[in-house]
Amino acid sequence: MEHKYKYGFATRQIHAGHDKNTYGALCPPIYQTSTFAFGSVEEGGDRFGGAKSGFIYTRLGNPTNELLEKKIASLENGEAAAVTASGMGAISTAIWSLIKSGEHILADETLYGCTFDLIQHGLRNFGVEADMIDFSDIEKVKQSIRPNTGIVYFETPCNPTLKIIDIKEVTEAVRSIKKDIIIIVDNTFATPYLQRPLEMGVDIVVHSATKYLNGHGDVIAGAIIGSEEIISQCKKHGIKDMTGAVLSPFDAFLINRGLKTLDIRMEKHCRNAQKLAEFLHGHPAVKKVYYPGLPDFSGHETAAKQMKGFGGMISIELNADKKRTAACINALKLVAIAVSLGDAETLVEHPASMTHNAYSKEELEAAGISEGLVRISVGLEDIEDIIEAFREGLDELI
Ligand code: 4LM
Fold first, then answer.
1. How far is the CA of 397 from the centre of ligand 1 (A)?
2. Domain 9-259 has CATH 3.40.30.10
3. Total-model pTM
4. What is the pLDDT of residues 64-103, one digit of tens each?
């Protein structure tokens, strides 16, 4: 896909979507309103009927949210975007808007736990079939496409194992079997600064904007990016009638503010994560480090090909049983024990019992999520302090 925007990434993350409004405010105002007054009954009818453009009601559209949508669409190099009340709001809106009962979803088996739960358990109640397989096995992907497959869905890097899926390879393989499948990629871990799946042929990118896009840990939000046609369907049908997952304009304002520094935040997340991963790799208490920036990591080459940097997420397995692993994490200084990711603060969590507890024991095993796996969202603190915190904790295990 050609880059159709005039300015570079950093310029767009600051300016895109903002027309400086009537008063010339440098920072866009927050249109914190649920409804919009019409000049007349006829005008209201025209707006509802589509004969006249204009805002109606914030569930159907809002100027603050629209600004953010233009910015995110621009950063992902997409035609349009819809912002939502959460990442799950984005994922469920996209899927509900585009799948029909009797159709089939093919998804990678390593996904954020709630997405896994939605596809593996939730959608089945509505007659949507699902297969969850390992997308790094491209022959298996091809064999698993059925005549009724409507959506192909994956994350890369995957939550929480950082598995890397070759976006171009999967997209081409899927299209070689069936052209009209909608391919959705969750780009939360990478962000558009590091990776732009629409440029590699996918149809839709979804985000938990709660994470790096906002970057400050004070908002729950999501985004869907794709063609005008798809986004219009997600807005006019999905958000408006089905999920109602509309973002608060105040939260849209915060994400717009956070996005202005996305590139420099991601650069530091990547730098810090690389240094921490190298330290952990050499520590005797650590059995395995999952980080795409390590040359011996299985997805390293593909990540180097399709990403601009290796991201801020690391997972590790320790040379310790569950009890000692927990004790080690509990004792860490500076680092918060919390789910979520992409904040300024370094966070650690235990996927098997927290973010991925919707997986059964067998499903965890198939997805490569061991009982001993610990996930780290490397923050923006001084790397020496982050490393020191882990050194202190891990040295206890030797
Ligand atoms: C977590 N993740 O992993 P909302 N897509 C991905 C995610 O990691 C998440 C969502 C969507 C975590 C939350 C507790 C790849 C969430 C869902 O939480 O609905 O904004 O995003 O720690």
1. 31
2. no
3. 0.97
4. 999 999 999 999 999 999 999 999 999 999 999 999 999 9
